[in-house]
Every structure is written in structure tokens, then in C-alpha cells.
Design brief:
heterodimer; A: 114 residues; mainly beta; B: 114 residues; 7-stranded mixed sheet; 11 strands
């Protein structure tokens, strides 16, 4: 069964500092990987996705993520965080065959201090 | 291009009652998935509808049921509500035959059971 682990429940960074959110997945085949962002009381917005090909993927709002098969990881990065990036971030793995079920991690809450 | 819409935005029900939540998928999408997101948790997959049939289900009891209409919109019904059913219910739409699991989420319906 597919699963996702986000080891950091809560992260605090200063505005302008770099950011890395960790994500590890468990899946038997090549996964489809996603990062979503959720502002308080809102739905989920897709930041970026990995299906195949280049292991470094670019997303919206200046985010990028790197797929590392050997480490079963898909960490999210941003070189300089803005106060508006404060939100909850979810890593997710999709089933690469058949049905379109997505399994989410428990999320990392990002706080940005001025 | 209209995105995924859900109604109502908020709902308060009493234990034992029944509730119906509604979802209209993104234009051009034909598959609808429902997720439950409890406070402080990641979304949990409830079930998915395609061609008006439930084709995959997560670990949720039969009290949770759904329907998909010919226009691809969908309803989620929950019978005999428990306090533990209080959550944000998210609808996601996707395109069968498209990139598996590339789902677009609505803003959610916040259900409170008292």
C-alpha cells in the first residue's frame, strides 16, 4: 500500500530564508508525486507534480521539488520565503496504474516570521 | 474556466441526522473523488466516482455513500452522523485517461456535528 511521511509537523522560518520541507513515500512502482498547499479554511492548491522525466520539477510561487528514487523522497524547496507562504503543505502520492486514488501525508505547517 | 465548486460552505448538524454535500467538477473533468480532512490531519480518501459508479473506496463505513449524475456532478451522503464526522469534506475532480491522480480540489464543505 502506498504511504507518505512528512516528518516535520511544524516549521518556522524567517522571511527571506530558504525552505525545505521533507517528504518520504512508500510505493512499489514509480510513483506520481504531488505537493499541495492549503491556507486556513481553504481547499488544496496544487503547487507542483512529478510524473516522470526530469527529477527536478518547478512549480508555482517559486517552489521546486526534487524526486530522489534512491531515498524515496520528494522534498519541497524555496530559496527565499515570503510571509504569504505561511500555510500548511501536503505531500501526496498517486497510484500510477488504474484508479486515481491519492494518499496524503499528515502535512507540515509553515510559520514565517518577519 | 470554472474550477471545482462545492456547496454548502458550512453546515451544522446534530448527531444521528443525515447530510448531503454537493460538488461540481472542473469543466471537462469526468471523475470525482471525495476526501475527509479532520482537524490537523491530511485528507483521507473516501471514494471515487466515474461513469456514475463508485469504483474505488477508502476505509469508510457504509454510512458514507455517494452518487454521480450524468453531468458529472456528485453528491456525498452521510447517514447517522457521529461527532467524529466533523471535518472538512473536499471534492476533487480529474480526467479519466489523463495523468492519473492529477486532481483539482474544491474549497471544501465544513461539517460540524453537535
Amino acid at each position: 500500500a502506498q504511504s507518505v511521511t512528512q516528518p516535520d509537523i511544524h516549521i518556522t522560518v524567517s522571511e527571506g530564508a530558504s525552505l525545505e520541507l521533507r517528504c518520504n513515500y512508500s510505493y512499489g512502482a514509480t510513483p506520481y508525486l504531488f505537493w499541495y498547499v492549503q491556507s486556513p479554511g481553504q481547499g488544496l492548491q496544487l503547487l507542483l507534480k512529478y510524473f516522470s522525466g526530469d527529477t527536478l520539477v518547478q512549480g508555482i510561487k517559486g517552489f521546486e521539488a526534487e524526486f530522489k528514487r534512491s531515498q524515496s523522497s520528494f522534498n519541497l524547496r524555496k530559496p527565499s520565503v515570503h510571509w504569504s507562504d505561511a500555510a500548511e503543505y501536503f505531500c501526496a502520492v498517486g497510484y500510477s496504474g488504474g484508479y486515481q486514488k491519492v494518499t496524503f501525508g499528515t502535512g507540515t505547517k509553515l510559520q514565517v516570521i518577519p | 474556466d470554472a474550477g471545482v465548486t462545492q456547496s454548502p460552505t458550512h453546515l451544522i448538524k446534530t448527531r444521528g441526522q443525515q447530510v448531503t454535500l454537493r460538488c461540481s467538477p472542473k469543466s471537462g473533468h469526468d471523475t470525482v473523488s471525495w476526501y475527509q480532512q479532520a482537524l490537523g490531519q491530511g485528507p483521507q480518501f473516501i471514494f471515487q466516482y466515474y461513469e456514475e459508479e463508485e469504483r474505488q473506496r477508502g476505509n469508510f463505513p457504509d454510512r458514507f455513500s455517494g452518487h454521480q449524475f450524468p453531468n458529472y456532478s456528485s453528491e456525498l451522503n452521510v447517514n447517522a452522523l457521529w461527532l467524529g464526522d466533523s471535518a472538512l469534506y473536499l471534492c476533487a475532480s480529474s480526467l479519466e485517461g489523463g495523468r492519473a491522480a492529477e486532481q483539482y480540489f474544491g474549497p471544501g464543505t465544513r461539517l460540524t456535528v453537535t
